Recover the amino acids of this structure.
């Protein structure tokens, strides 16, 4: 029996798994260092303390069909494409005939000094939980010292992740204030962004909707302010060619992501951990290796730029890669991947959101409803109905 290995149980990997489990001609081995899948688009909820981690994770064993799949919980160290083996930290090397690499993203510091050491990342469940632990510790520190910097939270970067995090932190203010024993209005939220106009993927009207809320919530959004360095409890940024410093107890780094470091270590032709794949999602150098999700770059032929990495595109790639492997195993031709953009909705807090669905702009409560439906749909695609019933978002009126 031919062997398929899937590396990573994120959106892309699990979607591929579910598709491959519809057949019985190939055996699948799924590898992930966690024994759970997490909803990466919900990490800000855990980082802000608005949701416990249990709400955004489910056990991988729930989606593994033992008739087709073996799950190995281990760290992938390297792929050797010539020998067709995967080196694992604690297990024997794993042989494959077909490989799906879906190892996901890591935080990207762009070489900014002190970012790794002095800012908090929010890239997985563990780091998201650390952010909330840190916020609570800073609130307690304020109570002891009365130093206002401990009430200040800085989000670095106003991309999709940064803006969703800012909204969630705003929702969490009351809780933080209780720990610090202050009025919620004393908790200060800053967001520092390099470019002048945030969220270029949305039209001006939608971005304005977001800006109006940030303003109403007294979020200090500093645009045209590239961050130059992070020192302990201090952000150094430039504005109008002048370097400025902002003191803060909590500094969270959300200025962008790169693909897994394993891509470089395995010798794939990558840039920032992402490989520009063939039209059928195979690696340009190996036609039995599919590279999908945040470790892949797929060219948008219209804009001539790679599509942004999102949960939605990862799910679609997972499905196509699995179908192509089944075709290849039967000796039939693979199909090219075509991305169907169903829309994009960003939440700002639990009850506000904005974006577009199909060609229609949505904002406010309907957008928030759509956002929750999108999340439930992605849960359905990776975890099935059981996970939607257990973890789905149905708190639509709060
Ligand atoms: P991003 O690259 O989209 O945004 C990073 C932001 O940080 C940008 O606005 C950039 O200008 C800014 N920045 C970079 N360097 C900076 C510096 N030195 N100082 C100040 N600002 C700086 O990254 P992201 O928000 O982490 O998102 C990564 C990808 O994941 C994107 O493709 C995004 O669309 C996607 N995403 C999707 C969802 C979703 O669909 N729900 C949620 C989160 C992220």
């Amino acid at each position: 029996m031919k062997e398929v290995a899937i590396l990573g149980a994120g959106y892309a990997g699990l979607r591929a798994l579910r598709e491959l489990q519809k057949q019985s001609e190939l055996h699948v081995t799924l590898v992930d260092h966690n024994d759970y899948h997490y909803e990466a688009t919900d990490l800000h909820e855990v980082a802000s303390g608005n949701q416990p981690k249990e709400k955004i994770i489910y056990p991988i064993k729930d989606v593994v069909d033992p008739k087709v799949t073996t799950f190995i919980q281990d760290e992938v160290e390297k792929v050797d494409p010539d020998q067709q083996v995967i080196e694992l930290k604690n297990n024997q090397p794993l042989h494959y005939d077909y490989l799906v690499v879906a190892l996901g993203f890591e935080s990207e510091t762009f070489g900014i000094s002190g970012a790794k050491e002095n800012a908090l990342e929010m890239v997985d469940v563990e780091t998201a939980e650390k952010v909330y632990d840190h916020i609570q510790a800073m609130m307690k520190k304020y109570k002891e010292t009365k130093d206002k910097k401990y009430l200040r939270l800085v989000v670095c970067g106003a991309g999709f992740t940064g803006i969703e995090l800012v909204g969630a932190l705003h929702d969490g203010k009351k809780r933080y204030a209780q720990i610090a024993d202050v009025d919620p209005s004393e908790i200060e939220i800053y967001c520092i962004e390099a470019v002048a106009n945030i969220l270029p993927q949305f039209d001006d009207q939608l971005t304005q909707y977001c800006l109006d809320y940030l303003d109403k919530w007294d979020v200090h959004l500093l645009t045209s302010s590239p961050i130059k360095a992070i020192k302990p409890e201090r952000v150094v940024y430039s504005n109008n060619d002048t370097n400025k410093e902002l003191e803060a107890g909590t500094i969270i780094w959300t200025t962008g992501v790169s693909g897994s470091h394993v891509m470089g270590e395995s010798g794939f032709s990558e840039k920032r951990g992402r490989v520009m794949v063939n039209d059928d999602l195979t690696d340009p150098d190996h036609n039995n290796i599919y590279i999908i999700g945040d470790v892949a770059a797929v060219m948008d032929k219209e804009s001539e730029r790679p599509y942004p990495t999102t949960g939605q595109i990862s799910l679609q790639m997972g499905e196509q890669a699995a179908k192509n492997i089944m075709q290849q195993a039967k000796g039939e031709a693979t199909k090219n991947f075509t991305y169907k953009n169903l829309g994009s909705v960003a939440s700002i807090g639990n009850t506000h959101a904005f974006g577009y669905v199909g060609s229609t702009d949505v904002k406010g409560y309907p957008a928030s409803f759509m956002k929750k439906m999108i999340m439930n749909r992605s849960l359905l695609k990776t975890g099935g109905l059981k996970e939607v019933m257990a973890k789905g978002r149905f708190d639509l009126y709060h």
